[in-house]
UniProtKB/TrEMBL annotation:
ABC transporter domain boundaries: 19-263
MF annotations from Gene Ontology: ATP binding
Keywords recorded for this protein, A-Z: ATP-binding, Nucleotide-binding, Transport
Matching PROSITE patterns: ABC_TRANSPORTER_1 (PS00211), ABC_TRANSPORTER_2 (PS50893)
Pfam families, A to Z: ABC_tran
Protein name: Amino acid ABC transporter ATP-binding protein
Taxonomy, superkingdom: Bacteria
SMART domains, alphabetized: AAA
InterPro entries: AAA+_ATPase (IPR003593), ABC_ATPase_HisP-typ (IPR030679), ABC_transporter-like_ATP-bd (IPR003439), ABC_transporter-like_CS (IPR017871), MetN_ABC_transporter-like (IPR050086), P-loop_NTPase (IPR027417)
PANTHER family per record: AMINO ACID IMPORT ATP-BINDING PROTEIN (PTHR43166), PHOSPHONATES IMPORT ATP-BINDING PROTEIN PHNC (PTHR43166:SF4)
Keyword Cell wall biogenesis/degradation attributed: no
Similarity section: Belongs to the ABC transporter superfamily.
CDD domains: ABC_HisP_GlnQ
Organism in which the protein naturally occurs: Microtetraspora malaysiensis
Amino acid sequence: MTGLTNLAAGDVAAQGLMVKAERVCKNFGHVEVLKGIDLEVQQGEVMCVVGPSGSGKSTFLRCINHLEKVDAGRLWVDGHLVGYRQRGDKLYELREKEVAAQRRDIGMVFQRFNLFPHMTALQNVMEAPMLVKGESKDAAKARAEQLMERVGLSDRMGNYPSQLSGGQQQRVAIARALAMQPKLMLFDEPTSALDPELVGEVLDVMRDLAREGMTMVVVTHEMGFAREVGDSLVFMDGGVVVEQGVPREVLANPQHARTQAFLSKVL
Ligand code: ADP
Ligand code: MG
């Protein structure tokens, strides 16, 4: 563990940050997918992550959300070391229940909307608070109705996913994630599966969320969104952060050849 800050110091440094990654590594078999990711996300920050396919963007989001285990390095979310508890100078793996408790505060939206097909839009949004938090049906329904209105779908609450467009389904998926009142929202290419004319309505909802102060990490190819809404832009390639900075500056004046090559293809 040489080169890492000691745990206590890392814990202190992670306070006040929503995410702190320190040399985060992840392998699948003998393939190194994340090769030492260092980054910090402040409370209220919108970080956009871009990079070529296969560079490890989804894997990194999945580590933040406990869907993958970090193999080396350390990752804190909201000041808590992901997956571990410290006693003295030893680390203990969290039990499944404790992991679930950590995950509750993180919302995630995927490229494929993954709504429950046999439930209406409203029921999709009500489900997790009732199931996971034991919220009453009335309370869950009241919040779900508010959230459906917030994503512009108050007239679609009784529709099943198959009766909704891709853009509408993705807005329901965002409402569903918000129903758990997360502190952090992760978006993994939320508009990549949508027809071009439906992209804007989803980005608008995300823009509103950012304006309201939600902390967000957004993997996206929408450079306009990154420029306008992002507080920071991270360019990942080959499992490392190649470059990061203020979106406008990185996009206008990329410093690294790999960033330049990538941006020349997508801009
Ligand atoms: P990105 O989101 O940037 O396109 P990913 O994080 O999805 O990249 O994938 C990075 C690399 O990790 C790819 O080479 C991918 O094939 C590999 N990978 C991702 N998930 C798994 C897995 N569960 N098992 C094996 N390899 C995986
Ligand atoms: Mg991906």
